[in-house]
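Please check this record.
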Amino acid sequence: MLYYAIVFLIIALIAGFFGFFGIAGLAASIAKILFVVFLILFIVSLIFGRRRPL
């Protein structure tokens, strides 16, 4: 998930550099959404992931 967020961020930076601001904005918003989803899943896995055996 974090990999795809970084890929979309790089696409947004390259598209913005070449002047494709519509594509850059879309790719940047997708990257933001994926990063937020990654953070939520990461925090949930930290809380519930490691349970001690009984």
Notes: Helices lie at 2-18, 21-48. Residues 43 and 49 are 9 Å apart (CA to CA).
